[in-house]
Amino acid sequence: MTQDDLTIADPKMKAEGVDVFYGDKQAIKDVSIDVGTDLVTAFIGPSGCGKSTFLRSLNRMNDTVASARVTGRITLDGEDIYAPSMDVVQLRARVGMVFQKPNPFPKSIYDNVAYGPRIHGLAAAKADLDSIVERALVRAGLWDEVKDRLGESGTALSGGQQQRLCIARAIAVDPEVILMDEPCSALDPIATAKIEELIHELRGKYAIVIVTHNMQQAARVSQRTAFFHLGTLVEYGKTTDIFTNPKQDRTKDYITGRYG
Amino acid sequence: MNRDTAPTDWNAPAMQSRIARRYAAERRFKALGLGAVLLSGLFLAFLLFVMVGNGARGFTYTHVAVPIDFKATPLTVDASRLDDPDADQVIANAGLSDIVAFAAGEALGEGGSDVISENAWKEVRTAIKADPDLLTGKTVFELPASSRIDIAAKEGAKGELGARVAALKANGRLSTGIHWPFFRNADATDPAVAGIWGALKGSVLTIVIAFLIAFPTGVLAALYLEEYAPKNRWTDLIEVSINNLAAVPSIIFGLLALAVFINWFGLCQASALVGGLTLALMTMPVIVIAARNAIKAVPPSIRDAALGVGASPVQVVFHHVLPLALPGILTGTIIGMARALGETAPLLLIGMRAFIGDVPNGICSPSTVLPMQIFLWSDEVDRGFVEKTSAAIIVLLILLLSMNALAIYLRNKFEKRW
Amino acid sequence: MTFNAAALLLLILGLALIGWLAGRARSAMLAGRAGRKLHSRPQYHGWYVALWLFAPAAIFLAVWTSASPALITNQVLTTPAAESLPAFGFERGAILSDARSVAQGQQAAVRLPAAAPLVKPYAEATAHYAWIGIAAMLALALAGGAYAFTRIRPEFRARTRVERIVMLLLLLASLVAILTTFGIVLSLLFESLRFFSLVPVSELLFGTYWNPQSGAPVADTFGGIPLFWGTVLIGAIIAMLVAIPIGMMSAVYLTQYAAPRVRRWVKPCLEILAGVPTVVYGYFAALTVAPALRNFAVMLGVPNASTESALAAGIVMGVMIIPFVSSMADDSINAVPQAMRDGSLALGATPNETIRQVLIPAALPGVMGGILLAVSRAIGETMIVVMAAGLSANLTANPFASVTTVTAQIVKLLTGDQEFDSAKTLAAFALGLVLFLVTLLLNIVALRIVKKYREAYE
Ligand SMILES: Nc1ncnc2c1ncn2[C@@H]1O[C@H](COP(=O)(O)OP(=O)(O)OP(=O)(O)O)[C@@H](O)[C@H]1O
Ligand SMILES: [Mg+2]
C-alpha cells in the first residue's frame, strides 16, 4: 500500500497484515499501515467498517473484550506489542487513548489529570505532580478555564471541557502516541474547533491517530488519511492526495458522499 | 520531536521494579477476590456437609426384634372396636404397653424394656389396627430402640452400654432401617417416635394460605401501580410503604400479627390461618416489587397496539400485559414463597412455639411449621434430637432448593428480550 | 353442624357461576327480543351478575369466619357448665380447645375430663352460629344476584360497571400495603404508649440495666442500652466486618475477573447461600461455630468466654449477608459505565488500580446504600441471635462474651407464659417500635441513595 513518496523512514507504529476477529466474525482483514512520528493520521470510513476496532488494537484495548482476537504484527518503535514480553501497562502508558464520549472519572479535575502520573509513579514529589498537571492542562488548552477550580468534579465541566480534560489526562502520562476515536462527535462546533486547534498544537510532539466521520475535519487536521471499508484498508496516502485525487473509486464515492 | 520534557524512561530499573510491584499487587488482589469467592463457597459446602453428615442418620433408626406372643399374654379388646375412631384409646386402655414391655423383658433379658423405646408399643398398636389377626398369634415385631441404644448403636459407646449393644448385635436383634415414624408422626418428646409430618403439613397449610392471599393482592396492586395509578402523593405513599415493607424485619410482622390478629380479632392462636396471614403480609411487598418489574418489562408497543384496536384499558391489561408478565411474576412469587417457607421469627410470636403433638387437621387447629420444628428440636436436651434436627433441616433445604430451582428454570425458560 | 368456610366458598363460587351463565343468557335473550345491539358483550353482563352475587357474600364469609369462634366461645362461657373453668391461663385455653375439637368432630373423645361438660354447649353454640351465618350469607348472595339480574337491559353498560369494579379491586389491593404499614405503626405505637405509661421512655432508651422481672414494672430494670449495644455489636460491627470485605471482593472478582462460565456457576451458589433459612444458620452457629469459638477463646485465655458468644452469631450472620452485599455491589459496579473502566485501562492502569481507584469510588454511593440495607437486615435478624447469641444482657465489648439483642429480647419477652398486658409484654412492643423506626430510617436513606445513584448513570 505504501507508496514511495509516503514511505515513512522511521515509523512510530507499524502494522503488518493485521486481522481482528470478534469470535468467528472478522472485523479487520489484513491491514498494513505505518503511523509516522510527527504526523496526524486520520482514519475515515463508513460506520461499522472497523476503524475503532483497528484503533483499539493499537494499544491492546481489545484485550478487554473477551471475544476479540488479534493476529498479524503491530510494532511500536520496532517492538512487537503483542509479544509476550510486552507489558500492556507500559504499552498503554506510551500509547494513550481518547474516547468518543468524554469519560472523566468522578473525581476532581486535578485528580483526573494526576491519575496517570500517580499510578505510573512519574512524579517524585507533590510539586512535580502539580507541575505535570499544570503542563498537561495548559497543553490541552484548559488551564485558563479551570485553574481556579481544580478541586471541582471533572464531571461538572461542559462536554467540550470534559473532552479536553480527557486529552489532558492522556497527555499527563507523557505518551508517545495518542489515539483519538471520534473525539468531537459528541461536541458542538465551537468545542470541536477548540479540539482541532489543540490537535494542531500537539502535532509534532506526539504521533496522533484520529478517527473521524467528518471529512472536513480529516482534511483540516491530518497529513495522512487512511480509508477503511468493510474491514479492509482501501487506500492510504497523503491527506491532500486522498481528498483531491483518490485512486480508488470506493474512496471517491465515499468522499463525495455517494455512500457511507 | 519538540518535546519540552525528556520522555519517560520506561526501562530504567526504578520504573521496572515499580511495574513489577504493581503486577504483584494485581496478582494479590485477584487472589484475594478468588479467596473471597472460595470462602463463601467453602462455607456453603461446610454447612451442607455438617447438616447432611448429621442429618443422614436422622432418617434411619435402630430397631430391636422382639417376638410378642398374644396367645400367652392376650390383649383383650373387642375386635369390632378396632375400626372405631377411638380405637387408639381402646387399645391403650387394654394395657398393650405392659404386654410389650413384658415381651421385651422376656426376649432381651433383664432391663429389656429399657432397650426399646417407651413408645414402641404405639408401633405395635398401629400394626394391630392394620391387621387384627396379629392378636391371635405370635409375631416378631421390629420395634424402635430407645434413644440411648439408638445413639450407642450408631456412634458406638463404651462401658456397660457398649457391652449391651454389642451383645444385642451379636444376637442379631438389632437392625437399622428407614425410620417411617419420622415421616408419619408429629412432634413427640421421644426421638423414637418424633416426626416431621405434623410440621410439614402445617407448613403446607400456612404457605397455601399465604399464597392465596399474597399472590392475588400483590399482582393486583402491582397492576394498579404500574398501569393505572395517577402520579400523586397517595401513590408515592403506597410506593414508599411497599419498598419499606419489603425491608422491614420479619419479627415486626410477628408483633403486628400478635397485636391485630390474635389480640384484636381473636383468631385462633398458633394456627396455620394466622401464620399464613402473617406470612402473606410479609411476602406481599416482595411479590408487588417482582410483579412491577415484570410488568415494566412488557414493552409499551404491545399496549399501544391493543389500545389501537379499541380494547379498553382493563382489557389491555388482562388480555395482553398480564399474560406476558406472568412468568416474571411467578418467578418472584416462588422466591417470596420460599422465603416465607423458611421463616421462623414472626411465627414464634403468634404462639407456634408451643409443643404440638398432633398433626393439624384444619387451618384453625394448633400447628407448627418445619422451621419452627427445627428450632424446637434444636433446643431439646435428648441427644437423639440432634440428628432429627439435621434431618428436618435436610427436608426443609430440599423443599427450598427445589422451589428456587423452579424459579430459576422459569426465569431462564421465559426470559424474553423484546 | 359446623361452619365450613371452604365448602361455603365453593358454594358461592358455584352460585356465581350460575349467575354468570344466567346473566349472559338473559342479556343475549333481551337483545334478541328487542332486536337491538347490546352495549356490552353478554359475558360482561354475566360478570356483572356474578360479581354482585359473589363479592358481598364472600366479604361476609371472611368476616364471619374470623368473628364466629369468638362469638361461639362467648356463648359457651355464659352457660352454667362454664362456671367451673379456671379463671385464666393455659389450662383454661386447653380445656376450651379440647371441648371445641370434640364438638366440631375433629377429635373422637375429650382428653381433659374437665372439658367433657362443655362439649354439648359447644356443639349447640356452633350449630346456632353456623345456621345464622349460612342463612345470612345465602341471603346476601341471592339479594346481590337478584339486584344485578334485574338491571340487565340491552343498553345497560355492563362492561363499564365491571371495569369500574375491577379498578376498585386493584385500588383496594394496593391499599393493603398502606394498611399494613399503618397497622404496624399503630399497633406498635399503641402498645408502646401503654408501656411508656409504666416505664418512662428515657429509661428504655438510656438505661443501662436490663432485667425485666416477671410482669411487674419494677423501676430500673428496663434499660435498653445493653440490648442496643448487643444489636450493634453483632449486626452492625461483627457481621459487617465479615460480610463487607467478602461480599465486596466476591462481587469484584465475579464482575471483573471471573470467566463468564465461572460467573454462571458461582452466582446461583451465592443465591443458595442467600436462600438458606435463618433457623438453619442459627442451628449451625449454635451447634458448630459457637463451641469451636469458645474452645479457641479458652485456648487464648479470654475471660468470660461463653458458648453463646457475640462472635459466633455475628460471624454466621455475616455469612448470611454476604450474598446480599455481593449482589448489591455487583449491581452498583455494573452500573458504572464501561467507558470509565476503559478510560482508566487506556492510561495504563492495571485492573486492580482501575477497580480500586475508579470503579469502587464511582460505585460507592450504590455500595453504601446496599450496605445500609444490609445493616438494617442484620439488626432485624432474629433466629441466629436467639439461637446463638444468648439472652444475658451484658454491656461488654468482648466478642467472646454473651450479649443479647433487641430481637432476641422481643422473642424472650413474648414467649413466656404471662398476661398480655404485663409490662414485660408491652416492653416487647416498645422494643419493636425502636427497631421499626431504626430500620425504617436506614431503609429510606438507603433506598434514596441507591435511587439517586442509579439516576446519575442513566
Ligand atoms: N465487542 C464487539 N463484539 C463483537 N463485534 C464487535 C464488537 N465491537 C465491534 N464489533 C463489530 O466489529 C465491526 C467493526 O466495528 P467498529 O466499532 O470497529 O466500527 P467503526 O468503524 O468504529 O464504526 P463507527 O464509525 O460506527 O464507530 C462491526 O461490524 C461491529 O459490529
Ligand atoms: Mg467507532
Automatic annotation (TrEMBL), chain B:
CDD domains: TM_PBP2
Domain ABC transmembrane type-1: from-to ranges: 200-407
Classification via Pfam families: BPD_transp_1, DUF3333
Spans through the membrane: 31-52, 204-225, 245-266, 272-295, 316-338, 391-410
Keywords: Cell membrane, Membrane, Transmembrane, Transmembrane helix, Transport
GO CC term, one of those recorded: plasma membrane
InterPro entries: DUF3333, MetI-like, MetI-like_sf, Phosphate_PstA
Protein location: Cell inner membrane; Cell membrane
Highest taxon, organism lineage: Bacteria
GO biological process assignments: phosphate ion transmembrane transport
PROSITE patterns: ABC_TM1 (PS50928)
Membrane topology: Multi-pass membrane protein
Family per similarity comment: Belongs to the binding-protein-dependent transport system permease family. CysTW subfamily.
The protein's name: Phosphate transport system permease protein PstA
Annotated source species: Sphingopyxis panaciterrulae
Organismal lineage: Bacteria, Pseudomonadati, Pseudomonadota, Alphaproteobacteria, Sphingomonadales
TrEMBL record, chain C:
Annotated family: Belongs to the binding-protein-dependent transport system permease family. CysTW subfamily.
Gene3D superfamilies recorded: MetI-like
Main location: membrane
Protein name: Phosphate transport system permease protein
Functional note: Part of the binding-protein-dependent transport system for phosphate; probably responsible for the translocation of the substrate across the membrane.
Localisation: Cell inner membrane; Cell membrane
GO molecular function, a single term: phosphate transmembrane transporter activity
Family annotation (InterPro entries): MetI-like (IPR000515), MetI-like_sf (IPR035906), Phosphate_PstC (IPR011864), PstC_N (IPR022182)
Gene Ontology CC: one annotated term: plasma membrane
UniProt keywords, alphabetically: Cell inner membrane, Cell membrane, Membrane, Phosphate transport, Transmembrane, Transmembrane helix, Transport
One annotated GO biological process: phosphate ion transport
Spans traversing the lipid bilayer: 6-23, 44-64, 129-149, 169-190, 227-248, 269-290, 310-329, 358-379, 426-450
Domain ABC transmembrane type-1: 229-446
Bilayer topology annotation: Multi-pass membrane protein
